[in-house]
Amino acid sequence: MTVSGKPRGSYAKTAARRREILEAGIEVFSASGFRGGSIREIAERVGMSQAGLLHHFSNKNELLAGVLELRDDTSRDISNLDSADGVGHLRGLVKVVEYNAGVPGLVELHCVLSAEATSPDHPAHSYFVTRYRSVVALTTQSFESARAAGQLAPGVDPASAARTLVALMDGLQVQWLLDRTSVDMAEETRRYLRPLLTVPL
After folding, report:
1. H-type alpha helices, 59-184
2. Angle in degrees, CA 106, 78, 195, rounded to 5
3. What is the pLDDT of residues 98-144, one digit of tens each?
4. 8: pLDDT confidence band, cut at 50, 70 and 90?
5. H or E segment and range at residue 20
6. The dihedral formed by the CA atoms of 20, 23, 25 and 31, expressed in degrees to the nearest 10
7. Rounded distance, CA 167 to CA 57, Å?
8. C-alpha angle 105/111/117, rounded to 5°?
9. Which residues does 188 contact at the CB level (< 8 Å), separation at least 6?
10. How many CB atoms lie under 10 A from the CB of residue 62?
11. Percent of all residues in the chain with a pLDDT value above 90, rounded to a whole number
């Protein structure tokens, strides 16, 4: 770091190069899955050797972890999910769905890897198990907060509503990937949520 706190040129270049590799990893893993995608193909996409890529990420599993972390960071950044509460968090989820419609590579990555990762020996298995538990728990808490604020419709069970919402979002992604003219993912998500709330979404 410099005295001013700004990263030195070499550090900034390294960070930019890592980001470039991760974005190439998203493309390759989206198209071929984790098992089918290769370090060599990712290296070729960014114009470097396998040895050069492994200078930034020591192995394929570490690269996958970086790709998944980048995807999660992007979702948090665009929706501010971590600080939103109740209906605010649900609105943030809709923003994520809207964003996803513009990044088919990320959507495809999620669909391919989450299906592959149902196998216990997949390197992303623990990540997806933990991720789904976290997402469902956070969304359940949001419905519970909405209920405490008098913003949840009578008779709605927060845990059931949360699990159904997550399943709906995942299912819509698959339909959208198969035919992008067939469904408006964000609008369908809103249609599910509106009857559950007593305030505008």
Report:
1. 60-79, 87-100, 104-116, 125-148, 158-178
2. 95
3. 989 988 888 888 898 899 899 999 988 999 999 999 999 999 999 99
4. low
5. helix 9-36
6. -140
7. 33
8. 125
9. 168, 172
10. 13
11. 60
